Amino acid sequence: MIQFDRFSLANGLRVLVHEDHSTPMAVVNVLYDVGARDESESKTGFAHLFEHLMFGGSVNVPNYDDPLQLAGGENNAFTTNDLTNYYCQLPAQNIETAFWLESDRMLSLAFSKKSLEVQRKVVCEEFKEHYINKPYGDVWFKMRELAYKVHPYKWQTIGKELSHIENAKIEDVKNFFFKHYRPSNAILVVAGDVTTAQVTELAEKWFGDIPAGEKYERNLPQEPKQTEPRRLEVKANVPLDAFYKCWHVGSRLDSTYYAMDLITEILGGGGSSRLYQALVKEKKLFSNIDCYHFGSTDAGLLAIEGKLVKGVKLQDAEKAVEEELTKIKNEKVSESELEKVKNKTESAIAFEDMSVMNRASSIAMYELLGDAQLMNTELSKYQQVTVAEIQKLSNEIFDENNSNTLYYYAN
Amino acid sequence: MANRTIAPKIIDPVEFDLHLKPYEKKTLDNGIEVYAIDAGAEEVLQIEWVFFAGNWYEQQNMIAATTNFLLKNGTASKTAFQISEHFEYYGAYLNRGCYNETSTITLHCLNKHIEELLPVVQELITEATFPEDELKLYKQNNKQRLSVNLKKCDFVANRHIDEYLFGIDHPYGKYSSAEAYDAVDRDQLKAFYDQFYRHGKCILFVAGKIPANLFAQLNKYFGSLPLNNKALPEVTHPIVQSPNIGSPIRLSNDPDGVQGAVRMARPFPNRHHPDFLNVQVLNTLFGGFFGSRLMNNIREDKGYTYGIHSYLQNHIHSSAWMITTEAGKDVCDATVKEVYKEMKKLREKSVDDEELLLVKNFMMGSILGDLDGPFHIIGRWKNIILNDLDESYFYNSIRAIKSITPAEIQELANKYLQPKDFYELVVV
């Protein structure tokens, strides 16, 4: 049970405090309710580029990193299709430094041209390092475009193409900031060796006078139900043929989320999972195979991917995957197999909760979903999933008309 | 109203008095040492069995790594599937890792399941069978994985730079190949297993919220095994450095590559050398954290790369000082030039007090954060014990951070940051 206190400032900033006096550290986590799904299709990759710019100096503080490091702190940030999260950890005595830095960049950035110029290049190198200069690095650019026709999940967080990042203008940066980086669009979580009274005072002092701004109302086109199979084949300079297939699943708050998560564990989690045992170990068709989902806020994707053993045909590999899916659709999983994946989930949650940094970011994410208290009921929701639900949901998800298949051929 | 133009007052972390929580040490009936850190709020445990069964002790490439990997792929009474299923059923993670001197089996689990899990770990150490079909599959899948990795410039660069530093026959310098996988033979695995696991030398590291009966449980399952009876063989490996030190090496791996992997490295002594701890401070300033000289210049000013880092390799016998980055293909040479420029600056101009204080505070804050939680604390102890050091190493490292002066930093830069002593490699 993770305890926390919660209050809001007049400008709409939500603040949550999680006291843990067993650590000498404090964590300050600021989550902004903006991700790649909020970008326009002609300017993709912007939310993530913007995350870089948040370190390029704010209106009163020329450099974010130096004062934090001087106070003994470390920080980082990440952007997803749904959200942008900034976190820092520092000795609890110096926590006010983090309030000063985080509040000043919420107040306003410096909008430095030099920072934009440099970070455009840095992000282009990041793009190259992870998506161009890597075998199979372009798969999810293609798969997302295949699976999503309307919803902005059709592009990746890093962006659709390098040119969108190269063309970013300082005006775009300013507009984005004042549209999305307002207190009413943010969640502040403070955790570690702190008290709620202390955080209340510091939050008022540093964040209280930031203008509320206009609340951003998200209004995204939802993806219509897919009604026929989609297929794509590509050829690239890679050593092995690879198979990718994904299906549409519900949103993060959908009641089927827990059964869906457990289905991916049954099929693809670890050495005793079904796909690994049947297709890697017994039939020797794949050299590796994984099953996972994206955990996205809006309706997401469940994916199976693997590299084929040399000499195996993609058609035969797909047929063998389908046989496993037919099995989970036609036969109930055993109670003990379900128990296994529930036990794995229970221990994954326990290990994740060990770090105060993880607890802080979980609190922020669940608050974004609607209520931080949700994190304390997750395990019981997994426990309630039945073998009948697994079977019913498998039949709904693994419908060929709901599927997107990519054959990735080696040259 | 807060005055935003003035930084809030801080306590300089360099003034902190840091302590490494002492371990509790017990010895099993057969002499196995157990180091334990009892801490944390969650009912979880991490148990690590460290064997002196790394590639230092193998007679042929890949034998140590393959033996370690296949430990959980079959015992006298269980198949690979049954072993995986057993650990996964109890929500436990059983990992193994093979390093240079040592190899490990690591168990993470909820305390309530420990009694179901220990007997099966015992089985892995006493009854592993290395089935032929598991070995065949392992070879096939690893060769496939290798063929994918060989397309990556960073992977290829890492192999070459280690080879330059230590030689292709040295445990720190050798690497995998399709031929090496093909040459692995089941009998070699069984012999290696028998000598270095079943009758090997083992140390245990335990951390978490430790149940009262854990030691008795460990003694029950591991205290009567024939471990720690025989002395380890004395094995030495001569280092054979490549002669191409101090001159640029450029390799082409992928004609379509858009980035190059830059690796610059020099040989460096191990942790027992008197300069080692002070050099850690110089390294942090140079390229060891986000605010380092290299990061500030090459990422934050020039935008040549997503990241650039320097570090001392984590080896027991002999280390190396390494600079790594992936940079745009057409700015790799410019990146190398800037790295040398930063070395020169450190040699010629002493660091100002303000910058050095920032580095010191950062390092102290980072250690304080890293002493948080049982798994981190046992990790520090493990490092100390396996390197044949004692707790004075920790306190000396704190002292080094607190007391090092700009003049000492400059002296070390002059001693160690000389381009002629570095291998310089770019792989596109």
TrEMBL record, chain A:
Residues 14-129 form the Peptidase M16 N-terminal domain. Residues 170-344 form the Peptidase M16 C-terminal domain. It comes from the Bacteria. InterPro entries: Pept_M16_N (IPR011765), Peptidase_M16 (IPR050626), Peptidase_M16_C (IPR007863). This is Insulinase family protein. It comes from Pinibacter aurantiacus.
Automatic annotation (TrEMBL), chain B:
Residues 184-361 form the Peptidase M16 C-terminal domain. It comes from the Bacteria. InterPro entries: MPP/UQCRC_Complex (IPR050361), Peptidase_M16_C (IPR007863). PANTHER family: METALLOPROTEASE, PROCESSING PROTEASE. This is Insulinase family protein.
